[in-house]
Amino acid sequence: MSAADLHGSCLCGGVRYRAALPVAHASHCYCTMFQKQHGAAAGSYANVPSSGLVIEQGAELLTEYASSGHGRRSFCRVCGSTLFWRSTESPDRIAITLGTLEPEYTGPVEREWFVEHKPAWLPRA
């Protein structure tokens, strides 16, 4: 395992990946699409260069859903784990779900998107 890479997998372990650093930024997105996709308050992602993403195992298990005209969401077709989000408008970048990283992500989360959609049941700072 390289310290210059992020590593992660899906819940069932069928898909394993690595992504080259640097992380441009990490974020929590409270848009309703991410809430529906994750079944949670937000989708949390590290934005990295798409050229550095390598699927080490289980590429055949990845399924991609076109959730909008430009948004593409990748997940494991066996366990349903959300792994990646990308935009066709920014093909040089890909967002990796923080919850699938091993070891856990320790960098800063600098951005929050669509905070006006933050659920009322989420504790306020």
TrEMBL record:
Q: Which Pfam families match?
A: GFA (PF04828)
Q: Care to name a GO molecular-function term for this sequence?
A: metal ion binding
Q: Which domain of life is it from?
A: Bacteria
Q: Which SUPFAM superfamilies match?
A: Mss4-like (SSF51316)
List the keywords (alphabetical).
Lyase, Metal-binding, Zinc
Q: Does the keyword Lyase apply?
A: yes
Gene3D superfamilies on file: glutathione-dependent formaldehyde- activating enzyme (gfa) (3.90.1590.10)
In terms of InterPro entries, this protein maps to: CENP-V/GFA, Mss4-like_sf
Query: Where in the sequence is the signal peptide annotated?
Result: none
* Name of this protein: GFA family protein
Q: Which organism is it from?
A: Duganella flavida
